[in-house]
Amino acid sequence: MKLLEERIRQEGLILSDTVLKVDSFLNHQVDTQLALEIGREFGRIFANEPITKVLTIEASGIQFAMAAGIALGVPFIYAKKKKAVTLSENVYAASVHSFTRQETYQVSVSQKYLGPNDKVLIVDDFLATGAALVGLVDIVREAGAELLGVGCVIEKSFQEGRALLEQKGVRVHALARIASMSPGEVRFVEDEDD
Ligand code: 5GP
C-alpha cells in the first residue's frame, strides 16, 4: 500500500536494525483517515471470503481491526492481554512470549464471542517474530472456528513471523513489507529489484 509506505519513509523512526517506531500515525497517535483506508484495503483483499469476525489483540491492533470490521460489515473482537494468571473456564487462552519486552503474557477471548460457526480474519499492527499472531491462531483453532487469513499492517519480512504462520497453513497479507532497515533507510520488499 503506497500511501502507507510513504508515511513509513517520512515519519518512521528506525531505532535499531529491528525496531521501527511509528508512533506519530499508527500506534500511539493514530491518523484516523489512514486507519480507515487500511481497513478498506483489508476489506478489498478479503472481499471474497465469508468472514464473520475480525480478531485482534489489545491495544495497538484495535483501530485496524475496527476499520476492517467496518469495511467487511462484521464485528471485531480484541483478545485481552494479561500477565500469566489463573484464567476462568469460559475463555480460550494462549500464552505469548514477547521478544521485544522479554516477558510472557496470556491472551484470552471469551467463549461467548467466538465459536465453531465463525470464519475469522486476524488483524494486527506488526508481524515480527509472529508470537502474538500465533497465539491468536491457536485461539481461533481452539474455538473450532475457521481461520480465513491474517492481515497485518507492517511486516518486518526479515523476521521469522510470516514463515511461522505459513507453516501453520495460514494465508498472510501485509500492507507494507519491510525487507531491511537501518537508520535513515527503509527498503520495502517490492523495492528489492530497483
Ligand atoms: P511479534 O514479535 O509477536 O510478531 O510482535 C508482537 C508485537 O510487538 C506486535 O504486535 C507489535 O505491537 C510489537 N512490535 C514488534 N515489532 C515492532 C516494531 O518494530 N515496532 C513497533 N512499534 N512495534 C513492534
From TrEMBL:
An example Gene Ontology cellular component term from the record? cytoplasm
Q: Which reaction does it catalyse?
A: XMP + diphosphate = xanthine + 5-phospho-alpha-D-ribose 1-diphosphate
- The residues listed in the UniProt record as binding xanthine, with positions renumbered to this chain, are L20, N27, K156
Q: Which compartments is it annotated to reside in? A: Cytoplasm
Q: Which residues form the Phosphoribosyltransferase domain?
A: 47-157
The entry marks the following residues as binding 5-phospho-alpha-D-ribose 1-diphosphate, namely: A128, T129, G130, A131, A132
Please give one Gene Ontology molecular function term for this protein.
xanthine phosphoribosyltransferase activity
State its Enzyme Commission number(s).
2.4.2.22
One GO-annotated biological process of the protein: xanthine metabolic process
The record's top EC class is: transferase
HAMAP family per the UniProt record, alphabetical:
XPRTase (MF_01184)
This one is known as Xanthine phosphoribosyltransferase
Q: Which organism is it from?
A: Paenibacillus validus
Q: Which gene encodes it?
A: xpt
